[in-house]
Amino acid sequence: MQHTMSNTLNMQKLCIFWACVLSGFHAVAQGFQIKAEIKGLGSNVAYLGFYEGGKAYSLDTLLAGGGSDQFSASYVSLSPGIYFLTTNKGKMFDFVVSKPTDTIIIGLDLARPDSAWSINSPENEAFFRFETYRKKLESAIDQHKNMRNMMAKATEGDTSVVNPVDRKISALYIQTDSLALDFVKRRPNDLFSAMLRSVRPPEPPASIKPLNKNGQPNPAYQVWQKKHFWDNTDFSNETLLKNVFWQVFFDNYFARYVKPLPDSIINSVDEILRETPKNGAFYRFIVLRITQYYEMNEFAGADRIFVHMVDRFLKKDETPWLDQATLERLDYKASVHRPNLTGSLATNFTMKDETGKQIELYEIDAPVTVLIFYSPLCQHCMEVMPKIYQTWLDYAAKSVAALAINTDKQEAYWKKFVAQQHWNWHDLSDENQIEQLDKQFGIYSLPVIYVLDRQKRILYKRVKPNELGNLLSKVL
Q1: Which CATH code fits 16-119?
Q2: Any idea which fold 350-475 has?
Q3: Which whole number is the average pLDDT over 436-461?
Q4: Cα(461)–Cα(450) distance, rounded to whole angstroms?
């Protein structure tokens, strides 16, 4: 996904955001048993977990019984998917549960990480072999990437040095892809094969070439790939979500085929969700993945995407799978953004400067206007305001205007403070408007900086002081 959305697949605890999302594991069934032998563990406790949408979650604690290496557990039912055994020191291995009622006998010698075995599950035997080879290829890729970075740094990016390593990395990726294709070919009926197919876009027909005659990328090739990206994903089969790959697959769609613009991202999310059964596992994953990411992201336009997700897909009466406290929190945060969404016109206001002169925002005639909401009583503001002022001075010659707006109600103190600064920008204050401005601009965690264009459209909001100069340079 755009803007460095993390593809990390490390284990995460079941957080509040997902607490009411995951489907239940217990259903009417004959029963499911796990029997595991873990040599060299040195502990009588192991933990069982599962994957959902590329993330790992804890499910149960297993205690050794019979022998120090013997672990077992019984369940009424266990949903099909990829599971794992782990300790406090880290994950030991993954395994496949393909039927809700079954008995799986598995084992591992910790002195040999590639020694995972199963005596009654050919599907897991094949899966263990696949994972052994995949991890070796993954390790080789990481090693070559590190080598490439060191070489690039030492040679200042000399292509004659780094290109051979790049070709080796590409070859290793092709090997990894071939490994997956081979598994699917040899074991087409396995659950894991279905998962691998679901995260692999189909190949365009031979008539559509990846490159034009002049050697440039063929736009038609990418258009076809984007249109057919989800062809192999059955959104009605929720089991396909219970693997380690799907989050990366989902994020790659946005990284490769969607322009990093709010409207493009919004339209793409809406298109995917129209094809997804409402309130199903895939629907829940997509809604929460997009909402959670853009709630925490500060790039220009992230607020528009977040508010869109809350207003369209997270309404209180239409989201039975999420708790009311979370819905209310999201709605409150969206309400802070709604009056000042990136790309919308800033709310106009008129305030007095230290001399009593009325200054109206929309009367400022400048290609760019910077709003700085601060307080002379804010210690952090006092630390960064000199830097903010100097940044503005650097661009004042390019007709960048600035309004420094006092957010407290101590106007006598403010006037004395301003008189000591000898600032050349507009200093404004009006204690009767502070509460309204707070609602309109969300002026919390001071200082709060906005960058507006000539029409007073919000280009950037909540700009960090040390990033102001770069953004002004970009805008101009």
Answers
A1: 2.60.40.180
A2: Glutaredoxin (3.40.30)
A3: 94
A4: 4
